[in-house]
Automatic annotation (TrEMBL):
Protein name: UDP-GlcNAc:betaGal beta-1,3-N-acetylglucosaminyltransferase like 1
GO molecular-function terms, A-Z: hexosyltransferase activity
Tree of life domain: Eukaryota
Taxonomic lineage of the native organism: Eukaryota, Metazoa, Chordata, Craniata, Vertebrata
Gene3D superfamilies for this protein: Spore Coat Polysaccharide Biosynthesis Protein SpsA, Chain A
Organism: Piliocolobus tephrosceles
InterPro entries: Glyco_trans_2-like, Nucleotide-diphossugar_trans
Domain Glycosyltransferase 2-like: 21-192
Amino acid sequence: TSAVGVGGASEERQDMQAHVSIILPVHNAEPWLDECLRSVLQQDFEGTMELSVFNDASKDKSGAIIEKWRVKLEDSGVHVIIGGHDSPSPRGVGYSKNQAVAQSSGSYLCFLDSDDVMMPQRVRLQHQAAVQHPSSIVGCRVRRDPPNSTERYTRWINQLTPEQLLTQVFTANGPTVIMPTWFCSRAWFSHVGPFDEGGQGVPEDLLFFYEHLRKGGGVIRVDQSLLLYRYHPRAATHSVLESTIWAHRVRFLEEQALPRWAAFTIWNAGKQGRRLYRSLTAASQRKVVAFCDVDENKIRKGFYCHEDSQERPKPQIPILHFRAARPPFVICVKLDLTGGAFEDNLRSLHLQEGRDFLHFS
């Protein structure tokens, strides 16, 4: 839109300035885009809304679908901004989100993925929460489609307690409120961001989330299901290597959690526990006083010898039964897998999450 350099015109533009910008990156989203954009139209939010779309080199009919909905949305008072490019290859989701944010003007940002569907009250309820928590990322509960895909992950997203939204930030699950549900103020986004634009293979949401936490940001979840969150193997998520995410997580654990502890125990003498130990810096390794486990065979071995260590003699770390071990613990046992046996063991120790133990699985 061109600005008009006449007295009254700028004030009029001020009135039109949206309060909430819906940020929608699009890349070959033809199968889902109609449903996604219909859900923007159906929002019951009473304030002003705009939709900022960035079309990242889609080769399907996404562009035409966006144009079709632009008319309907504008007619119902939602301003639509469309950016994009048609180079041979996409620049990636980090770049697309940054562009969509940059071309938008709302005081609040509501992130949306092109394959997801918002419930009508999403913008209204998250906006309400964001106004009260200006330096927080506000998420929400989700409904997974298909319902039986990633059941453990979906349970985790929906059932974390308010405290766990901050204590479980080191796990393999990633951000404790998931990116397609994020809602925050533009001012806070600008303070933390932008997203990493490295493209495919970069976990840009995790890196942004970590930077948000480093800057003291809060994490809030609206406890209603406000998003239909689609699972399909084609999703961009599947292009990030587990080893990349592992390295970022270890670094974040060492930076944010381990400095508080003079010594700690790694809960799991198996592959994941040993992998964590080997991934730590030498200074962090020296703080590991023991591994602990329930597996009698591992405990009978008595200790773990770090063969690749540069130190002489090579460190030998005791392997203890978990009841004989001392907190704090970094726990490398997967949650919600053992029919509750592990959780029962942990609960029986009456420890406080965040102070006496952290989950790293």
